[in-house]
Write a structure and sequence with these properties.
Length: 201
């Protein structure tokens, strides 16, 4: 069990690094969107490639940050009933939720999307739009994103079983940000760190 817990923590670190890296995609998407709009308005220049780049970036953000969202316990849930139960009962509900819903769904989508992506790669699929981009990188993001979600789901399952066995503290999987004020502060601090990083270079 200790080995599995170490594996779970390794998965957490990997998905956290991926999410931190892909968070820059939002800034790139905003710049591309603004640049495309300005070029179209002032110079009458436009290209479907610029629009498709934005779609790719938004797709990457959603697919590659979903595991990190699960890691932080920030996914949408309805706690009308479960918050009345003891912590152990809540953890058991999570265990059954991962086993019966999250993991089967993520594994199924991963399984179905692999041949979908491979076919696109094999055919070197291009966009149907004039001046569009190659399509297979976007399709490859689907199985990659869901593979990462499967791994994070396994990590969360291991940590909760570890908690039930008395080997893991609940702080390893409880909600990281509790209030909207904390959420805003966390976003602000992350953006300030990025600005400082840019200025240092």
């Amino acid at each position: 069990m200790h080995f599995l817990i170490q594996c779970a923590r390794w998965i957490d670190r990997v998905n956290e690094k991926i999410a931190n890296a892909i968070s820059w995609a939002l800034m790139v998407a905003v710049l591309v969107c603004a640049g495309s709009a300005l070029a179209s308005y002032f110079f009458k220049l436009g290209s479907n490639a610029w629009y498709e780049i934005q779609w790719y970036l938004y797709g990457a953000m959603f697919l590659f940050t979903a595991p990190y969202t699960l890691r932080r316990n920030e996914h949408v849930r309805i706690d009308v009933i479960t918050h009345r139960f003891s912590k152990r009962t809540q953890v058991w509900i999570d265990v059954f939720g991962f086993l019966l819903f999250l993991l089967p769904m993520a594994i199924l989508i991963f399984y179905l999307s692999v041949p979908f992506a491979l076919e696109s790669i094999r055919n070197q699929e291009m966009s149907n739009n004039a001046g569009g981009l190659i399509v297979w990188p976007a399709k490859l993001m689907i199985p990659t994103g869901f593979l990462l979600l499967c791994l994070q789901g396994l990590s969360e399952l291991i940590k909760r079983i570890g908690y039930l066995c008395g080997l893991v503290d609940a702080s390893e999987f409880e909600k990281t940000v509790v209030t909207p004020e904390d959420e805003i502060a966390a976003i602000r601090d992350a953006n300030l760190d990025k600005i400082k990083s840019i200025q240092s270079h």
